[in-house]
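Structure ticket #2291
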Amino acid sequence: MHTTKKEGKYTYYEAGEGTPIIILHGLMGGLSNFDGVAKYFPKEGYKVVIPELPIYTQSILKTNVKAFAKWVKDFITHMGYDRVIMLGNSLGGHIALYHTKMYPEKMLGLIITGSSGLYESAMGDSYPRRGDYEYIKRKAQDVFYDPAVATKEIVDEVFETANDRLKLIKTLTIAKSAIRHNMANDLPKMHIPTCIIWGRNDKVTPPEVAEEFHSLLPNSDLYWIDQCGHAAMMEHPDEFNRLMHEWLKKSNI
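Resolution: structure written out below.
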């Protein structure tokens, strides 16, 4: 991505001035997945902040959705923000949802895309043949509607993670934690304005997952992007930004 700042245990990217939008990346996602958002929203009067989540660096006991949500709250406190907008993709969406459940007083609004929290197409099944590059490549391509979005750089990164024993153990620990922290019973009690932006062709968290989030969250709006997989902000950045900005204006956030 661009230049990141390091302060104590926190490493993050920051751009713009205004209401903070805290962006949480997914398990295999880096800060660069949100390049489109990071370029667009600072021009619209928002401060975009993307922390590097400690997915592979915390102890195994703190490698779970709840501990990551507390880490995010501590990061917001460290940055001196009162209330924030939060955007999360995949595991990042699940962490954002759990943070909203635990610390609603910190939240102005929530945007989720391809979020876990209700359904997992068992992340663990992605790793039985971890030495097989072509298998990993197919799995990475499945994340997107257009397989060409899964560049060699992205596939190499996933392959490296799958072949790092400690990262593999932590990935499986997180997958189990995501299933354990299912949020179906929590969502009806969460009244923070929530924007759900979903790819119509998402194979990881299929469209019915978005419908279920929308039906369970009492204050939610659902938007679809066609010919789009699990990472809408990467595959269709302009459309993603337009929908998110439209929702922020409509919600007066």
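Closing remark: The mean pLDDT is 92.
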